[in-house]
Design a protein that fits this description.
Blueprint: E1 25-30, E2 36-43, E3 49-55, E4 61-65, E5 68-70, E6 73-79, E7 86-92, E8 95-96, E9 101-102, E10 117-118, E11 156-158, E12 181-184, H1 186-190, H2 204-207, H3 210-219, E13 223-226, E14 230-232, H4 236-240, E15 251-257, H5 269-283, E16 287-292, H6 309-317, H7 342-357, E17 363-366, H8 369-372, H9 384-391, E18 399-402, E19 421-425, H10 426-436, H11 444-450, H12 454-457, E20 467-470, H13 479-482, H14 518-537, E21 541-545, H15 581-596, E22 610-611, E23 616-617, E24 619-622, E25 640-645, E26 650-653, E27 659-660, E28 664-670, E29 676-679, E30 688-694, E31 707-709, E32 713-716, E33 720-726
Parallel strand pairs: 12-13, 12-21, 13-16, 16-17, 17-18, 18-19, 19-20, 20-21
Antiparallel strand pairs: 1-2, 2-6, 3-4, 3-7, 5-6, 7-11, 8-9, 10-11, 14-15, 22-23, 24-25, 25-28, 26-27, 28-33, 29-32, 30-31, 30-33
Helix pairs in contact: 10-11, 14-15
Length: 741
């Protein structure tokens, strides 16, 4: 076997029994004759030999050859190895980068199935690279093997044994149509929260603390979508600039909670802490969705570090390019996992099932999901990955969200994922942004987005909740920055403002950056109310980003992936700031209204057909003149659109089989710079309307608000949304003045 012989390898040999090839990873339990120990199993296709490396508290290494080989799985049972034991692997094989072979036993490798990781992937020295990173000829550096030992410089896996059975945990199981998703960063959400103890800030325990949970409950969201919590590493180019990977889209351990988010320890304690967080959120009725990155790993391209999969079986785990020295890159991060390979598919699905069954999570959002759906080159909706998910008895029951694109040719797949899947709908984002900044040529696309995007999802039995509607996400401007900046301001990232998109579809309301002008600030706050109101009244599943409900800013940075500081953290002082408290109150009110009214949470697409004896449609569209839209009207330029949502005949039944009925609502959206007079639809639509929300107002009056007769001409203020509840036909109300601009 190749590789250096360390002092540790000369110590007394450790007894290794044959053990079992399944399950993969390190499993503590009993072996023959009831002897306690740990079974280790590693798939390493094509490798010549595997050594299990055990480390004591002083960092001394003991190597144990795994001599049993079953179906390319090296395995062995080591008596006496207990939870808390740190370990890694050295894998032997040929070094031939031109053929895609990059085995190097001098490099200690993280078990892909490690359930906990001890140590930090900080600044990685040259010893951690399988090739000579500092070779004088950089064009061939990745082909020259580096024989220095990496063990002193890399984190180790930890043997974990947990007896949690979740018998007393009650999963919320919120139906998709009733869901309101809140995207947050575990660290960023808690780092500045005054109610979270300092020692818990930035951790799983901090997110599970009552002070953090109370905000989520008071807001009314039903699920948190956590930015990556799998163990991840930091890119060298960031560390050289004094920055770190903050978002975490650089995974290296698909079973391990990120050690830096643990307040209780990193020798397995992070597992219990994560579970306690999930339990606390479940008790509050909040589901936990993980943002997962199975499209690539932190090992990057051919010039990246050798941390795990590259050194175990490079060509078995990664998609190699036509020239196998390099990688096929559909992720933009240097490599792409080869999901067509059975062992890679097994790694991903084993990981997903582990997080559902043993860690208690309720669903997943798949980063660059189109990369997972590629068969060999093209995106294939009959790919092995999607087929396996569709039939898996565990995974097909949880929430599955696709980011339906990658960076390769043909990677944009919005609307193409099969039933069971929901999707981030970026066409919703772009349309709503364009509408409120006055850049839509007509309202055709807006009509589709408000009503569930049937043009994208009304096929194959999919429902309106296949569309995850969002205006902002972690990637891009915050909501406040969307109305404050027209240009990105990413100088703090150290890339001369080249990083991040320039297609922001934002409007700064006349001034770039923060302003002292009260009129500019009033307009910006109104635009924020418009965007949030549009989002929370649209059919589909709304997604908010942590802090947007109270005006969080990143000072114009639209790519805060490396900003583990005040730029990326939620500023909780905004919650009590008089300028921003009304926005928080409005968000809570809109979520409550959505929760109380099933017509806003439809489980089926609108038909547009006339219903009942009155002959009104389940969805009616109106021009600024108060007339029902004709086909030609959809193609006319216009900044005003009325949407009538009928609650009289919703195509769903309650748990006892009874028809569901609801109030009816009229939503008037007006993005124009001047007020308009909008005649309210009269009979058969309604006799009268009560104003529930008027986004032209900083403070929202308690319902019921101003009442108008059907047919009355209502002044809709410039750049505003009115939400009106249709009153019963028999209602009689006095005439009322229109709300002021």
């Amino acid at each position: 076997m190749e590789g250096p012989v360390s002092q540790a390898s000369e110590r007394a040999p450790i007894d290794v029994w044959p053990g079992r090839p399944a399950p993969l990873g390190a499993r503590f339990g009993t072996g023959p004759d009831g002897v306690e120990g740990t079974n280790f199993a590693l798939w390493a296709g094509g490798a010549e030999a595997v050594e299990l490396c055990l480390f004591d508290d002083a960092g001394r290494e003991s190597r144990c050859p795994l001599e049993e080989l079953t179906h390319e799985i090296f395995h062995g049972f080591v008596p006496g190895v207990r939870p808390g034991q740190r370990y890694g692997y050295r894998v032997h094989g040929p070094w031939n980068p031109a053929a895609g072979a990059r085995w190097n036993a001098a490099k200690l490798l993280l078990d892909p199935y490690a359930r906990a990781v001890d140590g930090d992937f900080g600044r990685l020295p040259a010893e951690v690279y399988g090739h000579q990173r500092d070779h004088r000829r950089q064009d061939i550096a990745d082909t020259v093997r580096d024989d220095r030992d990496s063990a002193p410089f890399v984190p180790k896996g930890v043997v974990v044994h947990d007896t949690e059975t979740w018998v007393d945990d009650v999963r919320p199981k919120t139906p998709w149509a009733d869901s309101v998703i809140y995207e947050l960063h575990v660290r960023g959400f808690t780092m500045r929260h005054p109610g979270v103890p300092r020692e818990l800030r930035g951790t799983f325990a901090g997110l599970g603390h009552p002070a953090a949970v109370d905000h989520l409950v008071s807001l009314g969201v039903t699920a948190v979508e956590l930015l990556p919590v799998h163990q991840f590493a930091h890119e060298d180019h960031l560390l050289r600039r004094g920055l770190r990977n903050y978002w975490g889209y650089n995974s290296i351990g698909y079973f391990a909670p990120h050690a830096a988010y643990s307040a209780s320890g990193t020798r397995g304690q992070q597992v219990g802490e994560f579970k306690a967080m999930v339990r606390a959120l479940h008790q509050a009725g909040i589901e936990v969705i993980l943002d997962v990155v199975y499209n690539h790993t932190a090992e990057a391209d051919a010039f990246g570090p050798t941390l795990s999969l590259r050194g175990i079986a490079n060509g078995g785990y990664y998609r190699l390019a036509d020239e196998p020295r390099h990688y096929a890159d559909y992720s933009g991060c240097g490599n792409t996992l080869h999901v067509v390979q059975p062992q890679v598919l097994r790694l991903i699905t084993d990981s997903l099932r582990y997080w559902v069954q043993e860690m208690g999570v309720d669903g997943f959002r798949f980063d660059l999901a189109a990369a997972l759906a590629r068969s060999f080159h093209d995106v294939d909706m009959l790919s092995p990955f999607l087929a396996v998910i569709a039939q898996d008895p565990v995974l097909r029951r949880v929430k599955l969200i696709a980011e339906p694109w990658d960076v390769g040719d043909g990677g944009y797949q919005v609307g193409a994922f099969p039933p069971l899947w929901t999707e981030w709908n970026d066409r919703y984002r772009d349309t709503v942004r364009d509408y409120w900044r006055g850049a839509l040529p007509d309202v055709r696309d807006l009509g589709y987005r408000l009503s569930g995007s049937s043009d994208l999802y009304a096929w194959g039995g999919r429902r309106p909740y296949a569309s995850v509607n969002f205006v902002t996400a972690h990637d891009g401007f915050t909501l406040r920055d969307l109305v404050t900046y027209e240009r990105k301001h990413n100088e703090a990232n150290g890339e001369d403002n080249r990083d991040g998109t320039s297609d922001n579809r934002s409007w700064n309301c006349g001034t770039e950056g923060e302003s002292e002008d009260p009129d500019v600030n009033a307009l910006r706050r109104r635009q924020l109310r418009n965007l949030l109101t549009t989002l929370l009244l649209s059919t589909g599943v709304p997604m908010l980003v942590a802090g947007d409900e109270m005006g969080r800013t990143q000072a114009g940075n639209n790519n805060g992936y490396c900003q583990d500081n005040e730029i990326g953290w939620v500023d909780w002082s905004l919650r009590t700031d008089p300028a921003w408290r009304p926005l928080l109150d409005l968000t809570r009110r809109l979520i409550r209204t959505r929760r109380e009214h099933p017509v806003l949470r439809r489980r089926a697409f609108f038909s547009g057909r006339r219903q009942g004896p009155e002959g009104i449609r389940d969805l009616g569209w109106f021009t600024a003149a108060g007339k029902e839209m004709t086909e030609a009207d959809w193609y006319e330029p216009g900044a005003t659109l009325g949407m009538f949502l009928s609650g009289r005949d919703i195509p769903q039944r309650d748990p006892k089989g009874r028809p569901v009925t609801d109030d009816s609502f009229l939503v008037i959206l007006h993005a124009g710079p001047e007020p308009v007079e909008f005649p309210l639809p009269a009979q058969p639509w309604a006799d009268a309307y009560a104003v529930l929300v008027d986004t032209s107002l900083d403070e929202q009056a308690a319902a019921p608000g101003t009442v108008h007769h059907g047919g009355a001409r209502v002044t809709v203020p410039a750049r505003s949304v009115l939400l009106l509840r249709a009153l019963p036909v028999a209602a009689t109300v006095p005439p009322a003045a229109s709300p002021g601009a």
